Amino acid sequence: MSAYRDKDPRIHGIQSRIRVVPNFPKSGIMFQDITTLLLDPKAFKDTVDLFVERYRGKNISVVAGIEARGFIFGPAIALEIGAKFVPLRKPKKLPGKVISEEYELEYGRDCLEMHLGAVEPGDRALVVDDLIATGGTLCAAMKLLERVGADVVECACVIELPDLKGREQLNGKPLYVLVESH
Amino acid sequence: MFAGDQNGLRGDPRLKEISEAIRVVPHFPKPGIMFQDITTLLLDHKAFKDTVDIFVDRYRDMGISVVAGVEARGFMFGPSIALAIGAKFVPLRKPRKLPGEVISEAYVLEYGTDCLEMHVGAVQLGERALVIDDLVATGGTLSAAIRLLERVGAQVVECACVVGLRDVKVQHGLNGKPLYILVEPRGQINCPAPSVNGVETCRHDDLILGANFGSPVNTTSKSD
Prior knowledge:
heterodimer; A: two-stranded antiparallel sheet; 9 strands; B: alpha/beta; Rossmann fold; five-stranded parallel sheet; 7 helices
């Protein structure tokens, strides 16, 4: 589901503030840079508002944000909808006991961690990141939450790269995005 | 300056709740360090909201146009403050994370150096800036953040942290910029700590007074 297709009038401003940086981090990649969106207070607020409007009143008890750009959007959403915020981090950053979930990269593997005890069985969870590409990271995030008994209600991203078919990697969990980039 | 020292917030029960919501993890990332874990604060919606509200109340009328947050835990507080006061948010990041043209500022760690980067063009000459991070220890990271902003001609109004020591050197050492802190770090009374020179490292007042042992012990640590 995409607010882009729904043509909310705020979407145009949000999309126009996202900067594309060619050949980062390597040749051929057109990097979707959300830092320019954060420089426009109205567009940034509209971004958060669109998510808050969707999730308020849905009994979401936890917003899990993926390091590091998920930390920019997730906490603001959590605060507005009355949920706790849980950071999902790269290895060895979280100080307490953690569970880990490995996932595949284009070359090699990486790992996402979550504090034990942060999320409880029955928690209704939203996963937030700035962008979904192949869906590998989001998938790892969902697994972490499900392993502790949470119910992942939806994944939410500002940007989707639909050509990479990340949506299909989410084991049937719904995905909500604001803009698509081809 | 500590929030609780001021007339308006003296005895404010929110500060006690915020302090108690922060978990202390002994010996992370290494022995002797009492790590102040703010992730437990983020699990307490009321305390997290109070944290943001106290900063917003302080900064809303100061004409601040940019909130700069230090990666990664500064990202958890900075954007909400920026949104509430109508400022832009600028992430200050470790090397090679920002995709566009950047300026870099090196800073000293206990062993070696690290580097903070900011996008060129994000901040304009004359903008009034707030720097935010979860915790201040030696002040090295915050000093680098201040230098980045000043290099592009911004005026750093203040640095704000949730947790910080009453360390006179740090308070005066942030390039002359004021530092605003909500709560002091806490220790654990009964933790099975290794001792340093036969003295336990876990007592709360050690954190307040700083380490006066034979070899220096960093009781708080800035890692990202």
